[in-house]
Every structure is written in C-alpha cells, then in structure tokens.
From TrEMBL:
Pfam families: Acetyltransf_1, CN_hydrolase. Residues 21-31 have a biased composition (Low complexity). Residues 42-199 form the N-acetyltransferase domain. It comes from the Bacteria. GO terms for molecular function: acyltransferase activity, transferring groups other than amino-acyl groups. Residues 1-12 have a biased composition (Polar residues). This is GNAT family N-acetyltransferase. CDD domains: NAT_SF, nitrilase_Rim1_like. Residues 258-513 form the CN hydrolase domain. PROSITE patterns: CN_HYDROLASE, GNAT, UPF0012. Residues 1-39 are annotated as: Disordered. Belongs to the carbon-nitrogen hydrolase superfamily. NIT1/NIT2 family. Keywords: Transferase.
Amino acid sequence: MASSSSAKSNGQAKKADKKPAPSAAAATPAAEEGHAAQPHKLVLRTLRKSDYKAVRDIMDKVYSNMEGAWAQDEYNALIRKFPEGQICIEDNGLVVAAALAIIVQYSDFGDRHTYGKITGNGKFDTHNPDGDTLYGVDVFVDPEYRNLRLGRRLYDARKELCENLNLRAMVAGGRIPGFAKYADELTPAKYVEMVRNKELTDPILTFQLSNEFHVRKIIRGYLPYDSESKAYATLLEWINVYYDEDAEKLIGNVKSNVRIGIVQWQMRGTRSLEDLFQQIEFFVDTVSGYKADCVMFPEFFNAPLMALTNEDTPSVAIRAMAAFTEPIKTKMMELALSYNINIIAGSMPLYQDGKLHNVAYLCRRDGTVDEQYKLHVTPDEASYWGMRGGDKLKCFDTDFGKIGILVCYDVEFPELSRMLSDEGMKILFVPFWTDTKNAYQRVRLCAQARAIENECYVAITGSVGNLPRVENMDIQYSQSAVFSPSDFAFPHDAIVAEATPNTEMTLIADLDLDLLKDLNTSGAVRNLRDRRKDLYSVSWVVKKTERDEDLLAQGEDRLPVRPGRKNKMQHTAG
C-alpha cells in the first residue's frame, strides 16, 4: 500500500507506489524455487530502536526514488518522543510493515496546514502529548507483503490507540496520485467525489475511504512538489466516537499552571545539624503554605556545616562535610512527603569511592528521589577541593511536567539545556553559588539566554551573607530570579519574578506552560522550530575524564595569590 502521508521526515515528498490497493486475496511472498513457503506468524507491536535496520530496508525499497529511508537519529527521535505511536507488524520476527504517528493540538494548525508545518519539517517538534488529534506521519509495507492487508491492520491499531488515548480524531493528509490522469477534465473536488462514489479508483484515497476516513477538505500545496497529485491532497479524518471531552482525571492531571518557590538562602553559622534542619523546614513549610508545586534551595546551602568539621584544610573540610549529605537528603525526602511539595535540594558534596562530586537532589512528593551531578566543575573547585564533574544529564518527570536541573556553572554551557529541551523540558532549575557580582552576572545572563533559546522558564537561586570560618565560601552574592522567554505573552523584560539582592527571602511565581506551546507555534520568533538541524546538531558522547584529571593535576600553583588569603581565586562562579 502507499504511504498515507507520502513524505519523508525531512519534508520531501515520496512518490506513492502505483500498484492498486490491496486485493481481497491473500498471498504469501514467493518462496525460493524448490522450497515450501514459510508459514506466516504475524505479530502487531510497537517499534523499538533496534528495529531500525529492518525499517530502513523497507523504506529503501518503498522510497527508492525519493532518497530512501530516514536517518537513524530521526527514527530514534520519533520513538523517543512518542514510543506508543510507532506501530509495526513483524512476520516470524522480521518487521514487514509500520505506521508512524504523532499527537498534535489540531487547533494550532487548522485545515490549511502543510505536511512540513504539522511535522515541524520532519523534526517532529510539533508532537504535543497533551494534544487532541493523532496525526498520521507515514505508513509503509514491504512490497512482498502488499497483498496481506497489513495496511488495514495498522490502521485498526491506530484507531485503537486513538480510543485508548481518548483523542478526538485521527487525521492524515492523503495524496491523490490518480488525479494527474484526469486533471484536464475534472476539478480536484469532482475527482474526489467520483472516487468516493467508486466511479474511479485512486491508489491512496480509495484505501483511506475504505478504512472509514472521510474527506474533511481538499488542500492545495500540502506537498508542493507532488506532480502526480498536482500539489493537491485530501485532508482525511477518522472521528473517535468514544471520545469524551470531559474525561480528564478529576485529580492528578499534568498542570498547565505551575507555582514554584525559590529560597534565597542566608548563610549563617549553625550549631548542629538539627539547627540546619530547623532552618530548612521553616522554608519548606512557608513555601508549601502557598500551595507551591516545588521549592528550590541554592548550591552548597549546607556550607555552614563545614565550620563544624574543625578541619583547617578546605579539601579535607568539604569531604568531612560530605558526611552530612545523606542525612540531609533523607530529611528533605521526609519534608517533601509531609508538606506535599517537590524539593530541589540545592546541591551538596558527595564523596564516594575516593571521588568528590557536587550533586543536586530532586525529592518528589511521591517519595521518590533522583539526582543530577554537576557536570562542569570550575577551575577553583577542581584545584582547591579536588572536585570532579559527573557524566550524565537527566530530564526529570514530575507531577507538574518535565524539568531539568543544572548546577551553577553548567548553565553557562548551552549544549546541556538544548539537550534537555529536546527531551521536553519546560522549566530549568539552576541552584548556584557565587561570591561576587560579576560571577553572579555570568550565571544570570546565561540563564536568561537559555530561557529564550529553549523556549522555557528558568529559575535561579543562590546564597547571601558571610561565613567567616569557612574558607573558600566566606562571602556570597545572589539575586534570585525566574526568567521567561521574550515575547508579547511574557513580561516585557522577560523576568517573571526577582528577589532583592543580598537579602534573605523567598520568591513565589506562577508559570503558565500553555504560553510556551503558543510561543512554539505562533511566536514572533520560534527558536526551537527554526533550528537548522540539517546543518548542526548536539549529541552526547562517550564519557571522558581527561579534563578532570588535567585540572586536578594542575594543583594550587595555577591559582593567583590574593593578598590576605593564600591561593584563593578572586572571582568564583560555583
């Protein structure tokens, strides 16, 4: 059968196969001469990344005259974004047919959309898990299996998926390759009418109509380079009669409006761990009282404990302080449960297997905990404390959407937030520690850039005050803030909320995630959708530790000497 969309992921048209629609008679692939045909064993399932080779082979056959198969990264991206929507049929363990789809909010595109627009020119950035319509991206069947009615099975599976996901409808743009033969004597509307009345047969439209689709509209320019269809296409729709527009869960929905709280933390001397716990609980209690979905603490908010270690050498003192990390994490988990709030527990030192790391913990209110290691350590952290960077980046699922956490210096590397954005991140949290205003400005300005280029919200918070007995963390500078993209729907200065500099306080901010969807489809500029993925990309590579070892080997000799304080780096961005 021919593809329902008849287009590649890069937006280029694929010519439909000119064979007629599947016949009523089933036939097996030709057996090798002298051997009996192997019995079929058909299984319907979702595609896996490991199926790429089989899918590639089919696409190369079906679309041999249109650049063949998609690249593996395109295939993987579609499975990553919407795994349950990528369906295949295998025969004796070999994939022989597949149907690919995304979910869209149909009102974002309307009836006059093109294939390129609704698929994001093959990037599939238009996939919206909260949308109302299943959109058919492609259908293809191995030519040897075209008479087994596999296309019908795939469409039946799509209908079942549409019903199970409670989506309003399934929509696809269908080429009408048979129209070229009649273009001189029939209008597109008349041609479609005659096919509907079975007076003519079209290789694609006839099959679609037999699968309970109706023609919603005829579009010009759906695939401008489709000469066989004279650039016309039918906008086909299958209505889910079981759709319940009031079927939203009464509780537990992913929120479109999120309330976050951030703590601009006062560094002060503490007498014990219990003393620190009281301070932490005060802020958790306060922010949760405003019905916030989460609260964030700064990087190294537990630094006052370093004074309790009675260690003179900073590298030894921070390792001693790392012994408090586990009980603090446990306490944060208890508070998240008891106060019904997600807690981003700033970041704390973790010393394991002879290696020192800086780790941010996400303590969810359902009792689960996750972690994000700081990936880029500053030269000061490496040579003064012997700290090392982590090697994994995570996009976290929460009950208020997908979030990312980048610890201070990490936000100054745009590749990280771009990869998080590709995973669906809508809010980026940045706990930081800085000692001077120019160090703070690096974090702030980079955070604002991340909000614009990734069409997300970014929340930052740090510490204020002084710690006279804690070397390398004795002075602090902070002005916590929440940033938005810069467009008409957002604050004129792209600042949602902002704290008073160097004053202990909390910020409470409401974030409308629906505004991010609108920005992506109709903003003055659309950074995510307009990226030239045909020219460049960002990807994760195999772990490398040479940089850590190099920084550690340089030792304290690399640091400038500041009067009054031996080997203390003057401007530190933690």
